């Protein structure tokens, strides 16, 4: 039986989760969706729209969707829904889990890795983070939860962009990309997102695609040319252009746009305008990895830094196999899989992206270098 896809919807209060959810629950889209309101016992802000006057936990909607409000464990709710579905008591094709505004999506995502019964029934399709363009800079400055939600995202939707200037919007997108270069960012009007952009994104799967924003890669290559000459030689033209691009925005953000992430490389205090603790970096290598060394190193790193590692993924060239090796993880939980064959004319390059809280880039880079054949 096919696994049931799960979408985790996260984002700060006022970012538009409720509006999006309302649409999912009430639109006649022909999909049968179960929505799990993940309250964790907090005061539920959206009671009125989810019509939970009855004491029932599971509600049937007119369009065939169901809503399940949980105050207990997410795992129990998922098991309950799966059991009812098997018995033919409820029918649904997919699940949307809405986390509360301050929730860390990490434990929610981990539920799908840790429990065999859950893993045999459900599959995370993607984590979607809604970002309120008007208030998010303040939220990102003040709340680590907001920064974590950005770090975890497979897809970001930017709401309320009509309330900010184009320059403010660009500056925010730039900031978000430095925290998470894997997640596409799309500006949306309230509740207007086509459902095709919400479901079946396959952002979380172990696939051979490692989408990293190309602008981010240019900047990475430029900053770290001592790590990766090949990438930088190739990208120099664009690097030059990137600096110019930064200066256009100087008056809005008080420093060269190019350097959000790389505060640590320079001594100008004004570069720390948004020195977010959630950061990402990309590692590339054109020599193969030694599988045993890499496994030992990643195991050790995850043991030490696991709680600070939000999301990480790699498509790797491993000695001893003609196929790509794909690995990814959330906090301490890591999984890997064999992907497609390397094409005959394809350059065998390993690429990894790490998104985490104050991760020690130098230690990771040096350790990974030492795992190369």
From TrEMBL:
InterPro entries under this entry?
CobW-likC_sf, CobW-like_C, CobW/HypB/UreG_nucleotide-bd, P-loop_NTPase, Zinc-reg_GTPase_activator
User: CobW C-terminal domain spans which residues?
Assistant: 278-372
Q: What does this protein do?
A: Zinc chaperone that directly transfers zinc cofactor to target proteins, thereby activating them. Zinc is transferred from the CXCC motif in the GTPase domain to the zinc binding site in target proteins in a process requiring GTP hydrolysis.
Q: Name one GO molecular function term.
A: hydrolase activity
The protein depicted here goes by the name P-loop guanosine triphosphatase YjiA
- Note down the stretches annotated as region Disordered: 220-273
Q: Where is the composition biased (Basic and acidic residues)?
A: 220-267
EC number(s) recorded for this UniProt protein: 3.6.-.-
Q: Which family does it belong to?
A: Belongs to the SIMIBI class G3E GTPase family. ZNG1 subfamily.
